[in-house]
């Protein structure tokens, strides 16, 4: 009886140790779940390529802001058409306008200093592309925090912790089974097998994988709260488009400071009232009022156009948001499918354990 009991317990120990540790730890959990699904599919393909490169750098910085706003609207309409043609040629003499206004004012200050140096180089290239996209989002968030810390530390540690419990149960079987009879051994072996199987399947798969990992942390915290709410809605649409671009740039700086303060007061009062005669003063002043009104109406039209660009940008972000929701939904469906497959493999392994144990007994 002792020899039979010892041989049977050795078979159970061999089956439990070899099959559970080798098959479950190496093949299914670490290789399939960590390496293939999470690191490659989710981090690399969806987040870095789609979100950072395609949407933000190409569409927003290059196409919309530099080309449309700086080149077309400001340089062509404002500098060339209104100031040079209408104001200089019609109202005052050619020499004064050509020398002072065209060269010094338009070329040096507006085109070179304002558009090229401040807006294109400093704002678009340096701050947005380099600092925000490359440094903060790709390097810090994806590589350091998600792949290294979360996948390696938490998941592999949890797997080995549960496997240590299983190994401890297997090692306790030798001590327990050598001191009992055959009937007691048969009863205890079934209890330990059921306990190990139910503990691994229930505790590991259900509690840790479904609730903690998939539902709570990844879907709710990562996708919904951080990416959608904080990044898209609060920072990009509200702060950048509404507050900075429309209010600060168009209203405060261009309309108030540039046109009304500098052009009407300094240019009209000093040059026109001093240089021209009293008989021409009324006509010239009326002409300058017409030009000023035309400039103001052009600014209102330009402001409305910029509102249309902002509305188009908002609709583009809503469309991109819906597309990203489809990608997130597809990722969730893929995780549920992978989880169902892993549950089938786990159920099959546990049934194989019970079957081999029954055959061994």
From TrEMBL:
<feature type="transmembrane region" description="Helical">
    <location>
        <begin position="136"/>
        <end position="165"/>
    </location>
</feature>
<keyword id="KW-0812">Transmembrane</keyword>
<feature type="transmembrane region" description="Helical">
    <location>
        <begin position="60"/>
        <end position="84"/>
    </location>
</feature>
<feature type="transmembrane region" description="Helical">
    <location>
        <begin position="289"/>
        <end position="313"/>
    </location>
</feature>
<feature type="transmembrane region" description="Helical">
    <location>
        <begin position="258"/>
        <end position="277"/>
    </location>
</feature>
<protein>
    <submittedName>
        <fullName>Uncharacterized protein</fullName>
    </submittedName>
</protein>
<feature type="transmembrane region" description="Helical">
    <location>
        <begin position="217"/>
        <end position="246"/>
    </location>
</feature>
<feature type="transmembrane region" description="Helical">
    <location>
        <begin position="185"/>
        <end position="205"/>
    </location>
</feature>
<keyword id="KW-1133">Transmembrane helix</keyword>
<keyword id="KW-0472">Membrane</keyword>
<feature type="transmembrane region" description="Helical">
    <location>
        <begin position="90"/>
        <end position="115"/>
    </location>
</feature>
<feature type="transmembrane region" description="Helical">
    <location>
        <begin position="325"/>
        <end position="348"/>
    </location>
</feature>
<feature type="transmembrane region" description="Helical">
    <location>
        <begin position="28"/>
        <end position="48"/>
    </location>
</feature>
